[in-house]
């Protein structure tokens, strides 16, 4: 028997390509409306990014979610979907499945036990509404024989449907099954795709800056990182390739090649007033020892070897103290690049929202075609915002597809 003969012919109402966060949520919502739903994924298991997220505990939402936490060429696009499916709605689902959770910091909610429970919950919800989920399925070609009619040639066989939902995610972590297939589908149907780049990603250093910091790999301290009008106060981590930690991951989404990063090394303090107080109180103490009280000692020492003149506090005149204060409050460092999609949590850019309805995620030019989740040009900050977008956009499409 040839493999073609074994191939199935499936007819359904809705096909969702991608069994990740957005795709599964969409399937649940569409199934609940009585739609026959088939979710197809090329990977060997569903929800791989959910499984690896939040260090295995899935930071599944953020209670402070607002449109201001997202980057998009059209900052208004995400508003409608986020307003109609809120963090409380997702928490209600988590609670109904008796999944224990806690707030870590800044509104970030994590499972107490494991991300596996979130995937289990989504699969149980999908099964409850009879949505079918098939893995190991490659979509080879998509045709559109008529209005509201899509035909997919897949490794399972031919699938015919009225609505096609693209939920293939972004390019981050190719080893986990990420592909640019969603962008290809968008282009096939005449949608613009905005340039993509890695976001929430460690920044790399090269040359002198790397030489000067590399051996401090592992040191971590709080900074306020700023670039292109955005600022994040959180921890910075020195790595053997450059800089990471939540403050750097956040600012990486705003950083463009060639931009200098501005780091306030004494966040929340008036650097000059603090130095003046140290000068009064510890006149004979060297700057590097004074700084070691508020920064890791080895970093304070390196700052004073390379960037700042270290001498006893009493030896700084007013203008020199001002210069030190400026350096500490506005320390500039130029990253040479990012670690790229290999380690990025998200992909910036993607399917242009101009071509989509913000209330349903449906294509404006191709009725029945939807794009949801990370494949769309909506990217959240670090902290549960990306899953909240996946749930909300999935829910919006699931109510209309
Ligand atoms: P997602 O990537 O989840 O799913 C896409 C699915 O499509 C996958 O199952 C994939 O196999 C499938 N697919 C791709 N190409 C295909 C093709 N050609 N054919 C068929 N199927 C295909 N966010 C957050 O809010 N909190 C967190 O804690 C984290 N943590 C985190 C850690 C790490 C390491 C990463 C990489 C990312 C995060 N994120 C996160 C981001 C979050 O995981 C991401 O934004 C969402 O998973 C996006 O959901 P989607 O459903 O859009 O894509």
Written description of the protein model:
It is a single chain. Helices cover about 30% and strands about 25% of the residues. The chain is an alpha+beta fold. It has two domains: about 5-195 and about 345-400, FAD/NAD(P)-binding domain (3-Layer(bba) Sandwich); about 205-340, Translation factors (Elongation Factor Tu (Ef-tu), domain 3), CATH 2.40.30. The strands form six sheets. It has a seven-stranded antiparallel beta sheet. Strands 8-3-2-12-22 form a five-stranded parallel beta sheet, with helices on both faces. The protein has a four-stranded mixed beta sheet with strand order 1-11-10-9. The longest helix is centred in the last third of the chain and has 14 residues, at about 385-400. The two termini are about 35 Å apart. Residues about 1-5 have low confidence and may be disordered. The structure holds dihydroflavine-adenine dinucleotide. Its cofactor is FAD. This is NAD(P)/FAD-dependent oxidoreductase. InterPro entries: BaiN-like (IPR004792), BaiN-like_dom_sf (IPR023166), FAD/NAD-bd_sf (IPR036188), RsdA/BaiN/AoA(So)-like_dom (IPR055178), RsdA/BaiN/AoA(So)_Rossmann (IPR057661). It comes from Luteimonas composti.
List the helices and strands and how they pair.
Blueprint: H1 3-6, E1 8-11, E2 14-17, H2 21-32, E3 37-40, H3 48-52, E4 59-62, E5 70-71, H4 79-84, H5 87-96, E6 101-103, E7 108-111, H6 116-128, E8 132-134, E9 139-146, E10 149-154, E11 157-161, E12 163-166, H7 181-188, E13 193-199, E14 203-204, H8 207-213, E15 220-227, E16 230-238, E17 242-244, H9 246-252, E18 260-264, H10 271-281, H11 287-291, H12 297-307, H13 318-329, E19 331-334, E20 337-338, E21 346-351, E22 369-371, E23 379-380, H14 385-398
Helix pairs in contact: 2-6, 2-14, 10-13
């Amino acid at each position: 028997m040839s493999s073609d003969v074994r191939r199935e012919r499936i007819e359904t109402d809705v096909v969702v390509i991608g069994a990740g966060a957005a795709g599964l949520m969409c399937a649940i919502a569409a199934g609940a409306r009585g739609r026959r739903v088939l979710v197809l994924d090329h990977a060997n298991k569903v929800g791989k990014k959910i499984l690896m997220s939040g260090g295995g505990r899935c930071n599944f939402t953020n209670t402070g979610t607002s449109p201001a936490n997202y980057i998009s060429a059209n900052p208004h696009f995400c508003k409608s979907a986020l307003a109609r499916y809120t963090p409380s709605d997702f928490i209600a689902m988590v609670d109904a499945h008796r999944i224990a959770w806690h707030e870590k910091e800044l509104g970030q909610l994590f499972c107490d036990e494991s991300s596996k429970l979130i995937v289990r919950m989504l699969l149980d919800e999908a099964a409850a509404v009879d949505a079918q989920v098939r893995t190991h399925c490659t979509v080879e070609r998509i045709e559109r024989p008529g209005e509201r009619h899509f035909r997919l040639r897949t490794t399972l066989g031919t699938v015919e449907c009225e609505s096609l939902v693209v939920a293939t995610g972004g390019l981050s972590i190719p080893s986990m099954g990420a592909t640019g297939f969603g962008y290809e589908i968008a282009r096939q149907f005449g949608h613009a795709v905005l340039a993509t780049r890695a976001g929430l990603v460690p920044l790399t250093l090269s040359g002198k800056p790397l030489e000067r910091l590399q051996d401090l790999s592992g040191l971590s301290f709080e900074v306020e990182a700023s670039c292109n009008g955005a600022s994040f106060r959180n921890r910075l981590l020195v790595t053997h390739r450059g800089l990471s930690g939540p403050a750097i991951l956040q600012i990486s989404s705003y950083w463009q090649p060639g931009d200098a990063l501005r780091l306030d090394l004494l966040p929340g303090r008036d650097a000059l007033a603090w130095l003046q107080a140290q000068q009064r109180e510890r006149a004979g103490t060297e700057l590097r020892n004074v700084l070691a009280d508020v920064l890791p000692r080895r970093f304070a020492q390196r700052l004073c070897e390379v960037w700042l003149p270290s001498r006893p506090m009493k030896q700084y005149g007013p203008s020199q103290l001002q210069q030190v204060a400026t350096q500490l409050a506005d320390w500039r460092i130029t990253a040479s690049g990012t670690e790229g999609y290999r380690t990025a949590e998200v992909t910036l850019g993607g399917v242009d929202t101009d071509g989509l309805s913000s209330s349903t995620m449906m294509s404006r030019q191709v009725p029945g075609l939807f794009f949801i989740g990370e494949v769309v040009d909506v990217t959240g900050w670090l902290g549960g915002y990306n899953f909240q977008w996946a749930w909300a956009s999935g829910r919006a499409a699931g109510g209309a597809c």
